[in-house]
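Q: For a teaching session next week I want to show students how multiple molecules come together into a single three-dimensional assembly. I've collected the sequence lines for a complex. Could you give me the predicted structure tokens for the whole thing so I can convert them for display?
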Amino acid sequence: MIEFDDVTVTFAGETEPVLRGVDLTIPEGELCLVIGRTGSGKTTLLRAINGLVPHFSGGTLSGRVAVDGRDTRDHRPRDLAEVVGFVGQDPLSGFVTDTVEDELAYGMESLGLPADVMRKRVEETLDLLGLAELRQRPLTDLSGGQQQRVAIGSVLTTHPRVLVLDEPTSALDPLAAEEVLATLQRLVHDLGLTVVLAEHRLERVVQYADRVVLVPGDGKPVVDGKPDDILASSAIAPPVVELGRVAGWRPLPLSVRDARRRAAPLRQQLADLKAPDHSCAERGDAAGRVADLVAGYARVPVLKGVSATLARGEIVALMGRNGAGKSTLMKTLVGMRTPDSGVVDIGGHAPADLKPAQLLRHVGLVPQVPGDLLYESTVARECTQADKDAGVPAGTTAALFERLSPGVPGDQHPRDLSEGQRLTLALAIVLAAQPPLLLLDEPTRGLDYTAKHRLVEILRDLAADDHAVMLATHDVELVAEVATRVVVLADGEVVADGSVTDVVVSSPSFAPQVAKILAPQTWLTPTDVAVALAGITTVSRP
Amino acid sequence: MRPQNHITFPRMLHPGAWWLWALGLAAAASRTLNPVPLLLILVVTGFVVSARKSDAPWARSYVAFLKLALLVIAIRIVFQALLSSGSQGPTVLFTLPEIPLPGSTGIKLGGVVSLEAVLRAFYEGLQLATILVCVGAANALGSARRLLRSVPGALYEVGVAVVIALTFAPQLVTDAARVRAAHRLRGQHGGLRSMKRLAMPVLEGALDRSVELAAAMDSRGYGRTSSEQQGSRRLTVLLVLSGMLGLCVGLYGLLSGTSAEWMGLPMLLLGSVLSAAGLYFGGRRTGRTTYRPDPWALPEWLVAGSGLVAAAAMFVNVATDPSSLVLASVTAAPPVPVLATIGILVAMLPAILAPPLPRPAPQTSSRTSEIEVAA
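A: Of course. Below is the structure for the complete assembly, covering every listed component.
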């Protein structure tokens, strides 16, 4: 269906090609998963399928890309609209019209399909994707999962044979992600569509993939094959695969179900061992405290009486579905929002009363889009400005950034940094003033596994350094890895507050993969299991 | 008869009909300073809007326009009555302390304020206010966005650009608020310097989104069917532009009432013919189709017609009985222009002639309807 024949892509102004000599054949009806670090060329590979590279992006493409027999050399993206449906990273920025129904019809209008065909296909697509109840709704009012489904529907109406998606679930909470993935599953199985998607959150998608394409970056060759073959040797792997490696299972399990069916001996082996407790050994003084907090809009309270204490030395994960009040709680803690009633206490002050210059000594927030904090033209200037803002000796922020993310040249533009580097730069800027309380809103959005591991180390160091850290996140694997306590919000109230083991292990949507595989035992991460198993072998081999 | 032709069949009226209706009333308002027809027009628009407006966000614009209209009247009175010495009459209302200015300018600060000056300013402000309220009514009843959906094929590209601009403007405001809040986290206050810092991330975000949107539109077939022939495109542009120019000149000639004879109706007709030809040729070269176009049926004709009747009645009244539309003196009781009043009252009919709005369907899941069937 899709053929890459010795494809090399070089963008204008670059000396090294992004992709070098890619040979790849994706047969019809497969769900193909493209993995790789950020910046390795995944997006370029996806965009070459419908000719956006090089027709839209510029640059040079040598070799040949053909989809359904059509060569992208002679076909512009618009000429492939009824062969390839392309869904970009942020569905909202790709919407042209403003209601669901019009959006579904847009592609067909461009192709000049007759009115009766359009009418019929819109109805079919509404049913296929379960959007019928939303047909008249404005696109901006939809939830993230619904928007993603509309984006998929809007390219399906032209009846393409191939669907290409760039990180369709990375911005979604676990349930919305399942919604979208279930839709894709159905398209592959019921309609025989060929689906190509790139995704960082392997634990969500790898079990559905028929083929994995690994784009290693740095000019190394692209490899493809069966999921378990590729993952056996890949540095990037979801927890279930890591556990499989630890336990020595061959072939590697890809889903919780596969692993659970093989895990009985492992569970027996681990039965006498105690799963490590992730709780904070000694909690320090309170760095932030809210009590009976009510906040929100006029007559629409988002937080309805929330009480919690954040102590130095602990890493608290704030979980809950979108709209549960996570962001509102964070905003109230940094004084962007004044509470309607209740207490917010940051080191003895109410944050809303503090001047910005004082505020940053007490609490720091890394927003969901770290780029919002950045505005200078180079990394070095960004650091100097942060030193001035925080009133600390010159070079403090630069030193911090060097520690968090070594080897980034100071004259680089912040926009050219990778997602992970941008996050650490924002983190360094916030940390310059040494706030005892540090908040992070969705820090792993768009981060690959390597960057995530780095973030985990950084957060542990910060907690050891007597900071209180709170992160709002949907990423259950990150929570399992790093959190010492979990607070779950639902509908503006705290529904659970306790150790990671107590809160997440029994929850169907918040449990990490390892916990699901080894339940009722309370192991959280592959590393914990590996350490415990290493203990057994050393004991039994005196 | 198609159900769309029934005035009782609930549906959204074509926004174009509402705009024609409102523009007809606005044209009527533009030809008189007599407060009787002007106030009547205000009442008519208010009545129709309250009878036929939807719950959509744009429907609230009527009140916003009404407030703007009051502001216009207030500004007019303050500037003309309090600051101009030329317009004062004999009936002194009160005298403000005056700051002397060179006498030749005709401008004063304070001093005598007369009833005549205040009334004249009020009447003139009322005319402008009425036209504004008519636009507000059109906006509240027929969304400008939906109107853009029915622009002819030749103007499609322009329509898309306007729609995208309409989407991006509120997005920019949200982005700016988010980035400002983030800058507070870096310990910064507002001020002039912060504007520059704000602009960078906001504009970058907007640029990124535009590129994303362009990529999405390209991959969905935008611009695929339009022909590449330079000649036909140039002809279309020439025809449409000259036609629009003709329309503008013609409308100006008709509405101003003081310009040369050839500037009125003849120019309007010429402009319409040229534009229609341009749109026809342009429409032929785009191979686009429209999904569920808004129908134009009997109620649309009736609504648009009632607005045009109001305008026509006013114009005939101006031609046949001009004395009933101008005030002999500002303080005298204004006369009642019979024909114009009847015309404006006809424009109140859309309150019943326009089809009622469909109520949003109750949110029923398939499960509850099954239960109902089972019961």
